[in-house]
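pinging the channel bc i need a second pair of eyes. not urgent but kinda urgent?? the chain im working w is below, pasted from the shared doc
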Amino acid sequence: MIDRKKYQNKHVTIKADETGKEEMSYYELARWMCLVEAIDFIDGKAKQLKLADDDKSWVKPLAIQKYIEDRTDGMIFELTNQGKV
């Protein structure tokens, strides 16, 4: 199990320009990446099932929240070990 507290205090620069820089903790970034991953999966499944664009029957906030919670540690691992062999 990953020490989430450690990654809540460890930051990564998201954007840097002449106006300054924006940072986010690895924990926050991991949770956002999990949300994007979940939405991408749902979108692919909706297209596969040929659901109409205005069909909102797939919206299951608790299931998405559970996915994010379950996947966060794995995503933190992937983000912090990217490129390491």
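so The helical segments are 4-8, 26-48, 61-80. and The chain has a mean pLDDT of 89. — does that match what u expected or am i reading it wrong
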